[in-house]
């Protein structure tokens, strides 16, 4: 295998690719597209939309606001999930 002729970059700004699949920047699930400025899955897109539209105040995190948001546990701590959404660059001004 000659890796220098691979046209596609394996990694771009920390994005992880599984073949042609782009992963959600928030939870690592399969991204459904570019939402609010970042690649995100349907779940995180909807979560972020609800959060900003309804201005939801989530219960503060019980773990120093350092939960590791993954697909399997992304619903466990909404506080950290929203924090992660913002940390990865999600913005209401994005599309
Ligand atoms: Zn997600
Ligand atoms: Zn948390």
List the defining traits of the structure above:
95 residues; alpha+beta; Erythroid Transcription Factor GATA-1, Chain A; two-stranded antiparallel sheet; 2 helices; 11% strand; globular; binds zinc ion; Nuclear receptor subfamily 1 group D variant delta; receptor; transcription; nucleus
Radius of gyration: 15 Å
Task: Give the strand content.
Answer: 5-15%
Q: Please give the order of strands in the largest beta sheet.
A: 1-2
**CATH superfamily caption:** Erythroid Transcription Factor GATA-1, subunit A
How many domain modules? 1
Q: What does the average pLDDT come to? A: 85
Q: Just name the CATH architecture.
A: 2-Layer Sandwich
Distance between the termini: 38 Å
Count of helical regions: 2
Characterize the main sheet.
2 strands, antiparallel
Small molecules (ligands, ions, cofactors) in the structure: zinc ion
Coarse structural class: alpha+beta
CATH class: Alpha Beta
Question: What order do the helices and strands follow?
Answer: EEEEHH
Low-confidence stretches: 2-12
**Which descriptor suits the 3D outline?**
globular
Total beta-strand segments: 4
Percentage of residues assigned to helices: 10-25%
Instruction: Say what the CATH topology is.
Output: Erythroid Transcription Factor GATA-1, Chain A
